[in-house]
Design a protein that fits this description.
With about 210 residues, this protein is mainly beta. About 10% of the residues lie in helices and about 45% in strands. The protein is built from one helix and 27 strands. Strands 1-2-5-7-10-13-16-19-22 form a nine-stranded mixed sheet, with no helix packed on it. Strands 6-9-12-15-18-21-24-26 form an eight-stranded parallel sheet, with no helix packed on it. An eight-stranded parallel sheet has the order 8-11-14-17-20-23-25-27, with no helix packed on it. The chain starts with a helix and ends with a strand. About 30% of the residues are buried.
Length: about 210
C-alpha cells in the first residue's frame, strides 16, 4: 500500500469509527410480562459491521433493521452487540458483546458475552451464557447453557441445564441438570443429575449436597 492509499485508508477508518453503529427509528409501545407498557424505538444500522453471533459473526449492513431499545444506554455504539427482529431490550438493561435473537423481552438486565433467543428476562445478570426459550426472573447466571427452562429467583453457577423448570428460590452451583423439573425451594451444590426418578409431589424442600 503506497502512502496515498494509506492516507485514504486512515481517513476512511477515522470516518468509520466516528459513525454511530445505529440510530433510533420508529417508536412503539410494547407490553411487558407484567402487563405494563414501555415506549421503545427500532434500531437501524448506520454502517456496515460484523455483529457477534452464536457461530462466527453476523454481517450487518447499513440500513438493516434490528430490534427495539428504550434508550441508547441499552445498546453500545462501539462493540459487536446487536438485537434482532422484534426483540426488546429496555429499562436499565445493558448489552455487552452479545446477540439477542428473535422473540426476546429483556428488562433491567446486564447481558455480557451471551446469545439469547426466545426468552423473557428481568432483573438478571448473564455472562458467557446461551439461553433458549426461557422465562427467567431475578436470577444470576454465569458460564451456563440453559435450554427450554423456567427459572424464578434462581442463582446458577458454571452449570448446564437442559429442559429444567425451577420455581421459587432455587440455587444451583456447578451442576449439570438434564430432563428434570422441580417445584418449591430446592438447593443443589456440585450435583450431576441425569434422568433421575421424579421427586414426590409432596416434597417441597429437597436439599442435595
Amino acid at each position: 500500500m503506497n502512502d496515498e492509499n494509506f492516507h485514504k485508508f486512515v481517513k476512511y477508518m477515522q470516518k468509520y469509527n466516528k459513525t454511530p453503529k445505529y440510530k433510533l427509528g420508529q417508536k412503539k409501545e410494547v407490553r411487558m410480562p407484567n402487563n405494563s407498557f414501555r415506549t421503545v424505538f427500532r434500531i437501524i444500522a448506520e454502517k456496515d459491521f460484523s455483529a457477534i453471533a452464536r457461530e462466527g459473526s453476523l454481517y450487518i449492513k447499513k440500513g438493516d433493521l434490528g430490534g427495539y431499545i428504550e434508550t441508547d444506554e441499552n445498546l453500545s455504539q462501539t462493540d459487536a452487540s446487536w438485537i434482532m427482529n422484534d426483540s426488546v431490550v429496555c429499562g436499565t438493561s445493558q448489552l455487552l458483546n452479545s446477540c439477542i435473537q428473535p422473540s426476546c423481552i429483556i428488562e433491567d438486565c446486564i447481558i455480557d458475552n451471551c446469545f439469547i433467543w426466545s426468552s423473557k428476562l428481568k432483573k438478571s445478570v448473564f455472562k458467557h451464557t446461551s439461553l433458549n426459550k426461557n422465562t427467567i426472573y431475578d436470577s444470576v447466571i454465569s458460564n451456563s447453557n440453559v435450554t427450554e427452562s423456567t427459572l424464578s429467583n434462581t442463582d446458577i453457577y458454571d452449570s448446564t441445564l437442559c429442559n429444567c423448570g425451577f420455581i421459587n428460590g432455587v440455587w444451583v452451583d456447578n451442576s449439570l441438570l438434564i430432563f428434570k423439573k422441580y417445584d418449591g425451594n430446592i438447593k443443589f451444590k456440585n450435583v450431576e443429575l441425569k434422568q433421575l426418578e421424579k421427586l414426590r409431589k409432596s416434597v417441597k424442600h429437597y436439599f442435595y449436597y
